[in-house]
Amino acid sequence: MSSPDKIDVRYVAHLARMHLADGEVARLQPQLEQIVGYVQQLGELNVEGIEPTAHAIPVQNVFRADEVRPCLDHDAAMQNAPLAREGQFIVPKIIE
Amino acid sequence: MSSLNQLTVTEATEKLAKRECSSEDIVRAVLAAIEKNDKQVGAYLTVDAESALAQAKEADVARARGETKPLLGIPVGMKDLLNVKGQPCTCASKILKGYVAPYDATVVAKLRVAGAVILGRLNMDEFAMGGSTENSAYQPTKNPWDLSRVPGGSSGGSAAAVAADEALATLGSDTGGSIRQPAGFCGCVGLKPTYGRVSRYGLTAFASSLDQIGPLTKTVKDSALLLSAISGRDAMDSTSLDAPVPDYAAQLGGDLKGLRLGLPKEYFIEGLDAEVEQKVRAAVAKCRELGAEIVDISLPHSKFAVAVYYIIATAEASANLARFDGVRYGLRVDGEDPIDQYGKTRAAGFGQEVKRRIILGTYVLSSGYHDAYYLRGQKVRTLIRRDFEAAFQHCDAILTPVAPSAAYKLGEQINDPLKMYLGDIFTIPVNLAGNCAINVPCGFTQEKLPVGLHIIGPALREDVILKVGHAYEQVTDWHKQKAAVSGQLSAIS
Q1: What's the pLDDT at A63?
Q2: What is the pLDDT of residues B312-355, one digit of tens each?
Q3: Active-site residue, B178 included
Q4: Helix, strand, coil percentages, rounded to 5, for chain A
Q5: Contacts with A31 from chain B: Cβ below 8 Å
Q6: CATH code, A1-46
Q7: Reported ipTM
Q8: Does B193 touch chain A (CB under 8 A)?
Q9: Is position B3 annotated as part of the catalytic site?
């Protein structure tokens, strides 16, 4: 790992679909760069040929019978909707 | 005689069986303690007294009918990220204000089967991100031993409630130490089970390859009782392990003869508070007196664990928290189009620490950086896992401090995220490796702040760490000492 690039906080926030105020960008910038600077130490290690760990205790082939079973009913699934109509979530218009 | 809210689960179970009190009596005593003390402590976000009393009365009726269940009539508090049907579940975040859970988490369903009374919503760092519970969007929680100090986190409410006798036992969750560290700061027993031991269905996900649910209790035996109740394979969580669930409490007892306990040299380092080190070393000596053989071990990649954790945990969090977009539940801030709506909703709904971690996690997964950070982090995770595998060839369990210091003052670390992250240095490796571990009280600093002994075991050897913790507890009385706040209550009632 080389020294970290300057983080484009506003661009990354856009990827995360999260608006940030100017003051937040200014506050986050040095904090994120400090943390990213800290993790550079992983560059000291030779990890050639080491398998990545995605789960510490691998569990394979978790299958169940393909049967219809009861699940949350529609009204319960909709009960927390900020805006709903006729059993559907309402979102802003996407296509004209 | 102690008041009913001060009982352990084991003591309460005995009293209930002998008909010396009812579940309703216990729940009323706990509610009174909350009423009296929680304005100061701030452990609970909400308490549904009506529901708790109704469940208690049902438990009393069931007992009168002759039913016996392991936790019949015992109230258990819930960290605010566990779904309890009909109760709020905010994860201490504004983005979930007003959310009402439509179903029970598997651990809640299992506790109900065991007869428990589900009581209250416990404060936490927002979405379990933090080590002090100061990141709650609603209120700070204070340490019952010293109200000017933090209770630890993220399960700070769960630990403070137990320490203040505002609960007999609680559940928390642990992604990098969030059960064990607050248990250490508040002087209670906190257990992080093996990854997969307990189903996470109904736990609001933070970092899915690390999260586990576990109990916070007043004694090791209580921890064992709750662990047996909540463990086991669950079709609703494909990462839950298909391994038998022993009666952990029944296996407790005896000394430590024949057990080898490892001391990793990498955990007794610069930055470890001298008083904490002294108490932990005294606890190690006590374990030797109990018959254990103490062996020196090495976990050479320990110093990289915090860096690996803040890559992997934030990456997983950035994906898991994408679901909070104002469409299906929670806060919605209107925007011109869906993208604008997501951006505004998340800007208004998330606090600073959550935003910091989502951005960090998005960054380490973004194009051009994925291999350098995320993939490398996963590879170093393998090295950390292998460290433990090698160490457990030489010992049955590992003894370390749970945190580098005792509880610090509110506000002391909140503006220095990296320093706060380094406070998890002794607990994080356990989550990365998937092992089980427990905090057991092992003394007090001169300022009367609890110090914790951290006992780490191999995967699915909760029986070993419980045995060590229980044997140690039987020859010490740290766990019997009461926090300042609870003492005030017992003096009055």
Answers
A1: 84
A2: 999 999 999 999 999 999 999 999 999 999 999 999 999 999 99
A3: yes
A4: 35, 5, 60
A5: 356, 417-418
A6: 1.10.20
A7: 0.94
A8: no
A9: no
| pLDDT tens digit sequence for B98-128 | 999 999 999 999 999 999 999 999 999 999 9
Chain A positions in Cβ-Cβ contact with residue B383 (cut-off 8 Å): 45, 47, 50
Half-sphere exposure of B274 (CA within 13 A, CB side): 1
User: At B465, which amino acid appears?
Assistant: I
Q: Is A70 on the interface with B (CB under 8 A)?
A: no
Residue predicted with more confidence, B421 or B164: B164
d(CA B238, CA B234): 7
β pairing state of B293-297 and B260-264: parallel
Residues of chain B with pLDDT > 90, as a percent, come to: 95
Which positions in chain A touch B433 (Cβ < 8 Å)? 56
Angle, alpha carbons B367-B368-B371 (nearest 5°): 100
pLDDT for res B415 = 81
| Among the listed residues B484, B493, B486, B488, the one whose alpha carbon sits nearest the alpha carbon of residue B25 | B493
DSSP for B348-379 reads: HHS-HHHHHHHHHHHHHHSTTTHIIIIIHHHH
Spans of all domains in chain B:
4-300+385-492
Spatial CA neighbour of B243 closest among B174, B196, B298? B196
What are the domain boundaries of chain A?
Answer: 1-46
Amino acid at B352: Q
B298 is catalytic: no
Query: pLDDT value at position B416?
Result: 82
Q: What is the mean pLDDT of residues B36-64?
A: 98
Mean pLDDT, residues B23-44: 97
Q: Between chains, do A28 and B334 touch, taking CB under 8 Å as contact?
A: no
- Locate the chain A residue with the closest alpha carbon to B331: A82
Cα(B450)–Cα(B405) distance, integer angstroms:
10
B456 — pLDDT class (breaks 50, 70, 90): very high
Peptide bond into B154 cis (omega under 30): yes
Digit-coded pLDDT (tens) for B123-140: 999 999 999 999 999 999
Residue B347, chain A, CB below 8 Å: the answer is yes
pLDDT tens-digit series, residues B219-240: 999 999 999 999 999 999 999 9
Residue whose structure tokens are 């059993």: A87
CATH architecture of B4-300+385-492: Alpha-Beta Complex (3.90)
A85 touches chain B (CB under 8 A): no
Residue in B306, B337, B360 nearest the CB of A92: B337
Mutate to test the interface with A, among B209, B339, B340, B359 (most CBs of A within 10 A): B359
Residues of A in contact with B377 (CB under 8 A): 39, 42
Shortest Cα distance from B55 to chain A (angstroms)? 22
Name the active-site residue from B79, B110, B218, B467.
B79
